Amino acid sequence: MATLIDNLSEAAKARAARHPEKQKRPDSPIQRKPDWIRVRAPVGEVFSETKKLVKDNGLVTVCEEAGCPNIGECWSQKHATFMILGDTCTRACSFCNVKTGMPAPVDHDEARRIGEAVVTMGLEHVVITSVDRDDLDDGGAQHFEDVINAIRNASPKTTIEILTPDFLRKAGALEQVVDARADVFNHNLETVPRLYLSIRPGARYYHSLRLLERVKERDPSQFTKSGIMVGLGETKEEVMQVMDDMRSAGIDFLTIGQYLQPTRKHAPVDRFVTPEEFRAYETIARAKGFLMVSATPLTRSSYHAGDDFKRLRAAREAELAKA
């Protein structure tokens, strides 16, 4: 019993170190996952190689930091989503497992190491995301540009997808990142407007929506992408309204996945959405005009990103051929 208590105490200390702002929140029991959302433990030689490459190059991945359930599948195929600008976020979203606090100074050599990792892994498509850096005057825009340029120089044929923060109150930051010309510009709305105060308190729904619209206004050739989680207490009607808002902003690609509660201190799962409901959401979204839709319980922003990018590009070409 003493050993169990000690282990629980160590686990609680680890949670507190990652999320000090959540420690006064009441515990929410973590629900047992249904059969359709369980995944295999990560194993295999290629998985181990990917893990070693990430570690040896001093890189950070959102796969690890956010506790992504697809890490075993993706890393076994040498797919990893690099998280730049450190491992510590200045926001305190109630759904996210990335560490919260004051980040370290920007590592200006990170761009070079990511470029080298892309070459070593032979990536045809790479996804770059970041923590929020409200402490920086540009929100990290210059670093995004540096990373994009480093990948272009190291591996010119690799297509690049970025998943950015909202650059709230960072004048000129969005324009700088758009002008770096990634192939896909992703920024997640995460949830419906009604739930922002409890789920994403540091962000603003209409600012995020407008950010994606501004990407299209500045560079119509860039694909735009956004995603939401379901199972947080939203209604079907609210999800469909978000779809309409996204289409009004010209968003090309929609992802919808099941929210999974990282710890007892995070927002609780309201319910597990069934695979049938996800298929219904996909049908509705395609009818609304998205070029690409991924809606499954395990869908995440960068899940199957390379294959999905090829489908996205083919869908645009087919649409242009009709014009």
SSE layout:
Layout: H1 2-18, H2 45-56, H3 62-65, H4 71-75, E1 81-84, E2 88-89, E3 99-100, H5 110-121, E4 125-130, H6 141-154, E5 159-163, H7 173-179, E6 184-186, H8 196-199, H9 205-218, E7 223-230, H10 236-248, E8 253-258, H11 275-287, E9 292-295, H12 305-322
Parallel strand pairs: 1-4, 2-3, 4-5, 5-6, 6-7, 7-8, 8-9
Helix pairs in contact: 5-6, 6-7, 7-9
CATH fold type? TIM Barrel
Radius of gyration: 19 Å
What's the CATH class label? Alpha Beta
Tell me which CATH architecture applies here: Alpha-Beta Barrel
Number of helices: 12
Helical content (DSSP H or I, runs of 4+): 40-55%
GO molecular function: lipoate synthase activity
Family: Belongs to the radical SAM superfamily. Lipoyl synthase family.
Subcellular location: Cytoplasm
Enzyme class: transferase
What does this protein look like?
Pathway: Protein modification; protein lipoylation via endogenous pathway; protein N(6)-(lipoyl)lysine from octanoyl-[acyl-carrier-protein]: step 2/2. Residues 1-33 are annotated as: Disordered. Belongs to the radical SAM superfamily. Lipoyl synthase family. 41% of the residues lie in helices and 12% in strands. With 323 residues, the protein is an alpha/beta fold. It has a single domain (38-322), classed as Alpha-Beta Barrel (TIM Barrel). The strands form two sheets. Strands 1-4-5-6-7-8-9 form a seven-stranded parallel β-sheet, with helices on both faces. Strands 2-3 form a two-stranded parallel ribbon. Strand 8, helix 11 (275-287) and strand 9 form a beta-alpha-beta unit.
Question: What is the compact description of this entry?
Answer:
The protein has 323 residues and is α/β, with parallel strands linked by helices. Helices cover 41% and strands 12% of the residues.
